Amino acid sequence: MTTDPARVLRRLVSATLIVAAPAGLLGCASKSQNRSARVPVTVATAVERSMPFALVSTGAVEPIVSADVGSQVGGVVTRVAFKEGEDVQAGQLLYQLDPRPFRAALEQAKGVLAKDRAQAESARLDAERTQKLLEQNMAAQADWDQKRAAADSWLAAVQADSAALVSAALNLEYASIRAPIQGRTGRHLVNVGDLVKAGTSDPLVTINQLRPMRVRFTVPQTAVPLVLRYRDANPRVLVRSAGGDSVDLDGSLVFVDNAVDPASGTLLLKGEFPNRDGKLVPGQFVDVRLELYVQLKATVVPAAAVTTGQQGAYVYVLNPDSTVATRTVTVERTVDELAIVGNGLHAGEVVVTDGQLRLAPGSKVMVRAGSGGTS
């Protein structure tokens, strides 16, 4: 049986095409798989900027001036001249005590003084007459001594009466209880009809000066050398309410204690704030940042870009061919959500901030939309 050479050739070509077709399909699938193997990541650019060096603490707001208003005399309250929580001026009337007993005491002191003045004048004239008689040898020395002593005694009585009159006048003035300082009043602790005792330690009302205000806070004793080094450079103190307010209030450091508390190992500091908007309230707890100095030209990346491994801190750096490489870095410190890199990275290099867990050196990446520089 003869075989047609042309037919045999056609069969061989067909078999070759059948075998080659799956290989071509596999090659296309492999290329498609390689393209889909890119890891989606978020990136940011390392930037160079000035970064403050700050100590973080928790503080409490306190007034610079506070007065617990009491009464210097006792009596019944006949009038309350202010509303709870309102601002008052220094010298403004707060409470009025019944003035009648004090007016009566004042009039009595006036009468006693007038009577004793008349007695003193009579004793003085009597002593002068006795002295003239003594000079004429018409009176004994003992008589003149007695008259002179009586005159001096009445003069002393007049001085005592004058002091009693001043005291009575002051008591009448103290019956009108006035604000010793300018500030905001607290709640009423006495009302009309209450009997107020003199000189007690219980206040009638508390007045706090709200502008300016101070914030007291502490730093650990390890930070004391830094605080003492930069205290004369007028470092800034920034506070925000512990409730999550995003607005910082700017103040200055005005007090550094002269000793570390041995019980807590901390140093007490105070910052002063204008408090023009009244956001700081006595007794309020706040988050405090003491900015001691500003580091110029610091290399900064988002803190999320830094990963810690067995060899220390490192970042993934994006190469121009969309691959990544690991770079060991030294992080000096973090501020909020930013990391300050001392070594291993330069401004302008792009680092991965999200997706590092799926990466390895040389991995191909796809940058997600929305990536950008460090804010």
Give the key terms.
about 375 residues; four-stranded mixed beta sheet; alpha+beta; conserved putative lor/sdh protein from methanococcus maripaludis s2 fold; Elongation Factor Tu (Ef-tu), domain 3; Helix Hairpins; about 30% helix; 3 domains; 4 helices; six-stranded antiparallel beta barrel; single chain
Structure description:
By secondary structure, the protein is of the alpha+beta class. The chain has three domains: 39-51 and 297-373, conserved putative lor/sdh protein from methanococcus maripaludis s2 fold, CATH 2.40.420; 55-64 and 207-295, Elongation Factor Tu (Ef-tu), domain 3 (Beta Barrel), CATH 2.40.30.170; 100-174, Helix Hairpins (Orthogonal Bundle). It is built from four helices and 23 strands. The chain has a six-stranded antiparallel beta barrel. It is elongated and about 135 Å long. The two termini are 86 Å apart.
Topology:
Layout: H1 5-36, E1 39-45, E2 47-63, E3 66-69, E4 75-80, E5 87-88, E6 93-97, H2 100-135, H3 141-174, E7 176-178, E8 183-185, E9 195-196, E10 205-208, E11 213-220, H4 224-230, E12 236-241, E13 249-256, E14 266-273, E15 285-302, E16 307-309, E17 312-318, E18 324-328, E19 330-335, E20 338-343, E21 350-354, E22 365-367, E23 372-373
Parallel strand pairs: 1-22, 1-23
Antiparallel strand pairs: 1-21, 2-11, 2-15, 3-10, 4-6, 4-9, 5-8, 6-7, 8-10, 11-14, 12-13, 12-15, 13-14, 15-20, 16-17, 17-18, 19-20
Helix pairs in contact: 2-3
